[in-house]
Design a protein that fits this description.
alpha/beta, Single alpha-helices involved in coiled-coils or other helix-helix interfaces, Rossmann fold, 5-stranded parallel sheet, 35% helix, globular, leucine-rich repeat, hypersensitive response, repeat, LRR_R13L4/SHOC2-like, WH-like_DNA-bd_sf
């Protein structure tokens, strides 16, 4: 119960902190009561952190009391925001304080009688970068499987073949398929590659959308429309498709007609645990077995000790632990991830080895080794447990967006504030910790190696759900057919039968709903609401305790109502739609706002007289014609990500552009800035006065027509890593970079610049460049050969550019390979003359996409 107790306590602290910083509510509560409650809760948080394995009889009352206190405070806050007051508020809070004092006395007595039994050392420092690259999953003992599978993929058999990979959960089927899918031989052999996560709760729309997203197709269509588009995309192509984690043949039957038989050696890999699926396809299967002891030991050492050897004093006990994993790679990785973060003492490791959970027991429902995986949870620091359990809410096989996950954790109140770090930065350090423990797997990466999403192995997700039910973290209703519906109490708008009897969960989780039914709006305690196109944005703002609101609507909603300010603790506002939205001036009176993401919004100037700085605001996108007045910059001092569009700039005001771009340099925390200009005429001097802060790491400029002086300033930015230049981003047909040095720039994108004929640069201009992406540059001449001399360059992409640009990219690769440089990869997409370009040079590092 420690996870539930800790999450409830930290959530209460966060709620009290928000009230104390609110311009209205801060004066509505009794300061003496708040201070007394704060001191008790702070004491209990410290206790749970250091005695996380204390008895349930002690942890449960702590969580229940914190939960009740937060309910009382939030209900009263909702009443006061709506103009009502509760005469019994002081009495109810006082009653809770007395209950907590009683609990504190029991805790003090327990501490006097019991030594600290915390599971793990203090939390690690946060990652140095939020764009942490994915770890390559080691394939120890799988060399034979890889060779066999590659042979099946590339052998001279013209008809389409289906290749099943079968084995129990956690044995490495997906890892094997992924390594073969990304193998250079497979990349070179197939024209198109598609990856689809099927999962137990498959959905035809989701499967087809995944397939199309792999090859750049559209997604918002009916199943038949998606299928037809997929068929057209694959027709005539030699394709490789991976259908990962297929549980039933019905999933295949729903989509098989959309994979054409081209007679050119196309292949479909299917990973499954079910022999029934293998029998259905009728092809010989590749059976993935357990690792032998030698490979098990090597894998354990690599995961646990990285490049170091196992300490001699731990070797005997470590080998005992490895034997108990019985050759299951997932179990070895999870235990290795646990011990890699644990103290390297014989006493501690012996305690792990004798733990009764360290037994590989196989249950009847798919041979799931849940017991051994439970150790990974048992020895998690208590501050990570609620975050870990929370991820069981996401559907099986679902890719969990990094940005969304951190926002949801913050909205739920799981993140304990620390000095000199935002809550999101703390959440990112938690993600890193879970990845290091092999509980969270890297899902999608950007082209620039930044992690976009993560996923859970289905056995780890099962662990989340079972443990959450056991700890009363959230409830699960199992319906006919085995599908799950998550059930919560009054802080969610979940649908469930009225006859269902539930034990009230102690920690509240969000509702994410979709479909034709509109969510009920009954609870004043609702925190997280994700609505679809059928729901009402206006009704959403009646939920005054909302912290996270994501709304997707195709309906016309030209203005966000001023009632949004009633949502006193709103942190994240995401509105997706087709319109431009007018944001009310009340937005400047919402100090808890952290992230605003709307396709295009018009934001009025701050009202005069009010001085409410939005210190928490980190993301603001996308704003139309934002004026960087001194007052606006003072209101958003900690902004980190800013997207702006300037439209229809037909004339100047009093002879100058009135957007005060010189004040952008005041935003000292700004990391990502995007400025795009639209209209029939573009002003060459629009950004003439632009000043940029040294904190910038990413800059996107579209149709801005910047001059040489502005480019010199950009080059001088000490932390800039990504520069994206689009349309008429730079004046002229010839861009010269030779006088600048972008000393930390890693990624350069030049896109859709119709007049660009020549780009002059050398290896000293971009000394640490890793990727160069050129696209839709139809009149561009040769790419300088000197670009290939950049020692860090890994990828050169030339997409739909002139023949001169494409041919020069191939010459760069040819020259570099003649010098022994095997690290550079060149990606080319042609139109019309692809056969001519393909015949110029052959290399496994030359990719036609």
């Amino acid at each position: 119960m420690a996870a539930t107790a800790y999450a409830s306590l930290v959530s209460l602290l966060n709620t009290m902190d928000q009230i104390q910083t609110h311009p209205t509510l801060s004066t509505c509560f009794d300061n003496y009561q708040f201070q007394s409650l704060w001191e008790i809760v702070d004491f209990l948080v410290d206790f749970v952190e250091n005695y996380s394995e204390a008895e349930e009889d002690l942890m449960r009352p702590i969580g229940d009391a914190a939960h009740e206190a937060e309910d009382v405070i939030e209900v009263d806050a909702a009443d006061r925001i709506c103009g009502r007051e509760s005469p019994t508020m002081l009495l109810r809070v006082e009653k809770i304080i007395q209950e907590m004092i009683s609990i504190k006395e029991k805790v003090v007595k327990f501490k006097e009688e019991t030594p600290s039994i915390t599971s793990m050392p203090p939390p690690p420092p946060p990652p140095s970068s939020t764009s942490r690259a994915a770890k390559k999953t080691t394939m120890l003992g799988f060399d034979g499987y890889v060779a066999q599978l590659l042979d099946e993929l590339t052998r001279n058999v013209s008809h389409r073949r289906i290749l099943p990979i079968v084995g129990m959960g956690g044995v490495g089927k997906t890892t094997l398929a992924k390594n073969v899918y990304e193998n250079p031989l497979a990349v070179h052999h197939f024209d198109v590659r598609v990856w689809v996560a099927v999962s137990q709760e498959y959905n035809a729309t989701h499967m087809l959308s995944q397939a199309l997203s792999s090859i750049g197709g559209s997604r918002n269509k009916t199943d038949d429309e998606l299928g037809v588009e997929l068929h057209k995309s694959l027709f005539g192509q030699r394709y490789l498709v991976v259908l990962d984690d297929m549980w039933s043949v019905e999933a295949w039957e729903k989509i098989q007609r959309f994979f054409p038989e081209n007679g050119n050696g196309s292949r479909i890999i299917v990973t499954t645990r079910q022999q029934e699926v293998v029998n259905y396809f009728g092809f010989s299967s590749l059976v993935v077995n357990f690792l032998d002891y030698e490979n098990s030991w090597d894998l354990f050492c690599e995961v646990t000790f990285a490049q170091q050897d196992c300490p001699p004093q731990l070797e005997r006990i470590a080998k005992k632990i490895v034997r108990k994993c019985r050759g299951l790679p997932l179990a070895i990785r999870v235990i290795g991830g646990l011990l890699g973060k644990a103290p390297r003492t014989h006493k501690y490791w012996k305690e792990i080895a004798k733990d009764k959970s360290l037994v590989m027991e196989y249950s009847g429902d798919g041979n799931k080794p849940i017991n051994i995986l439970y150790l990974s949870y048992k020895y998690l620091p208590v501050w990570l447990r609620s975050c870990f359990l929370y991820m069981g809410l996401f559907p099986d096989g679902h890719l969990i967006d990094v940005s969304r996950l951190t926002k949801l954790w913050v909205a739920e109140g799981f993140i304990k504030p620390t000095k000199n770090q935002s809550l999101e930065q703390v959440a990112e350090s938690y993600i890193k910790e879970l990845v290091d423990r092999n509980l969270l797997l890297v899902g999608e990466l950007t082209e620039y190696k930044k992690v976009l999403s993560y996923c859970l192995h289905d056995l780890v997700r099962e662990l989340c759900i079972k443990t959450a039910e056991k700890e009363n973290f959230y409830c699960v209703q199992r319906e006919i057919g085995g599908r799950r519906q998550f059930i919560f109490d009054e802080r969610s708008a979940s649908f469930y039968p009225p006859s269902l009897t539930l034990k009230k969960p102690s920690v509240i989780t969000p509702l994410i709903w979709s479909g034709q039914r509109e969510a009920p709006f009954k609870s004043r305690l609702l925190r997280v609401l994700v609505g679809d196109r059928e729901s009402s944005l206006h009704k959403s703002f009646r939920q005054v305790n909302l912290r996270y609101l994501s709304h997707h609507s195709l309906l016309s909603t030209p203005a966000i109502p001023g009632s949004i300010s009633l949502c006193w603790s709103l942190q994240t506002l995401i509105v997706l739609g087709l319109d431009r939205f007018v944001v009310p001036y009340e937005i400047w009176k919402m100090p808890q706002l952290r992230h605003i993401n709307i396709p295009v919004m018009i934001v009025p100037p701050p009202p005069p007289g009010d001085v409410v700085a939005l210190h928490n605001l980190q993301t603001l996108k996308t704003v139309e014609n934002l004026i960087f007045s001194e007052e606006v910059c003072a209101r958003i001092p900690n902004i980190r990500e800013l997207d702006i569009e300037y439209r229809l700039l037909e004339e100047k005001v009093e002879g100058v552009w009135c957007f005060h771009f010189h004040n952008v340099g005041r935003l000292s925390k700004l990391e990502s800035l995007s400025i795009r200009c639209w209209g029939k005429r573009f002003a060459g001097d629009l950004l003439e006065s632009l000043k940029l802060p040294n904190s910038l790491t990413k800059l996107v400029l579209g149709n801005c027509s910047i001059g040489c002086s502005c480019m010199t300033m950009i080059a001088s930015l000490p932390h800039l890593q990504l520069l994206d230049l689009r349309g008429k981003a730079v004046v002229g047909t010839e861009w010269k970079f030779v006088n600048e040095e972008f000393r930390n720039l890693k990624h350069l994108i030049i896109y859709d610049c119709p007049n660009l004929r020549k780009c002059i640069a050398d290896r000293t201009t971009f000394p640490v460049l890793e990727t160069l992406h050129l696209e839709n540059l139809y009149v561009l001449g040769d790419i300088p050969l000197d670009v290939g001399e950049i020692p860090t360059l890994e990828k050169l992409s030339v997409i739909k550019c002139s023949k001169s640009a494409r041919m020069s990219a191939i010459r760069i690769l040819e020259e570099q390979e003649s010098f022994g440089n095997e690290a550079l990869h060149v990606h080319i997409r042609s139109w019309g003359d692809e056969a001519l370009v393909r015949g110029c040079y052959e290399s496994p590092n030359l990719h036609f996409i």
